[in-house]
Amino acid sequence: MPLSVPTVPGSWPGGALDRAGAERDVDGLLDALREVSDTAVLVIHGDAAPVVDARLVLVPVSAVTDAREWAFLGRASNGSALLLAVVDEGAAVEVPGGARWAPLRAVGGDLSADEAEILGTAVALAGWLRDAAFCPACGTATVLRQGGWSRHCPRCGREHFPRTDPAVIVLVSSADDPDRILLGANAAWGGSRYSCFAGFAEAGESLEDTVAREICEEAGVRLGDIRYRGSQVWPYPRSLMLGFRATALSDDEARADGEEIVEVRWFDRAEIGAALRGESAIQLPGTASIAHRLIDDWYRGLM
């Protein structure tokens, strides 16, 4: 049976999401909340949710007829519950007039901070609910617990939780000129977009060591003055992006690794400003990403 949603969408009532973690241990939580009239549901299809006018579309429980998995996301400032309904990729899905299915990468930068957090959480949790149905230790089908936030293996007794992988992303400033930054073109983008440098932390490695290693490997540059700037959920597939600023020790060392990074370039402030305003052929990261925030903050002198 296909999922359908009402003609008039609901929206988040405002205020930050209260994850209400203590409620997750309540027996029968999801079933009980599906019986409450003011419970709202965010439907996730792949990595996309219905959006209208830069707002998430929330629907009543009665509108969801074919969810693969359910989970408890938390409560709004008015106390009403918010549930996640995960819909299979192949399901027929209808959205209200004026709404569209929008992936996190495309729409995250247009949402309010509260709704961006909700969508990032929902996409990350939905991915885990879809992909981790079996115990990685013994292969047995697991049983959902804690309102969709854990899986119990009935055979070996292990408990499994949504996994998050730490990754660093770094904006590198010039050693000689504070009005220049180093960006790289990734082979995965066809060399057409320039961004900050990023990579996953390895086992036994500190974040600072990850920053130094990744930039040296990808761009050939040794770093000094490494500073943490903020983080962002990035569930592609399950990353927590940890943003840093750093300064090159020598601009002349910059060179692309030729594999992951096909080109590195020093950009001055005027070039970055033109690219941010869409007045240049240079493509920068989308507004949903922390890479865009790092670049924009540098351009506006906020770092």
3D structure, described in words:
The protein is α+β, with helices and mostly antiparallel strands and 303 residues long. The chain has three domains: 1-129, no CATH class; 132-163, no CATH class; 165-299, Nucleoside Triphosphate Pyrophosphohydrolase. 19% of the residues lie in helices and 31% in strands. The protein has helices at residues 29-33, 104-107, 113-131, 207-219, 269-276, 290-299, and strands at residues 40-45, 48-52, 55-56, 59-60, 69-75, 81-87, 100-103, 143-145, 150-152, 159-160, 165-173, 180-186, 194-195, 197-200, 223-234, 239-248, 261-268. Strands 11, 12, 13, 14, 15, 16 and 17 form a seven-stranded mixed beta sheet that branches. Strand 9 (150-152) and strand 10 form a beta hairpin.
What topology does this entry show?
Elements: H1 29-33, E1 40-45, E2 48-52, E3 55-56, E4 59-60, E5 69-75, E6 81-87, E7 100-103, H2 104-107, H3 113-131, E8 143-145, E9 150-152, E10 159-160, E11 165-173, E12 180-186, E13 194-195, E14 197-200, H4 207-219, E15 223-234, E16 239-248, E17 261-268, H5 269-276, H6 290-299
Parallel strand pairs: 1-6, 11-16
Antiparallel strand pairs: 1-4, 2-3, 2-7, 5-6, 8-9, 9-10, 11-12, 11-14, 12-13, 12-17, 15-16
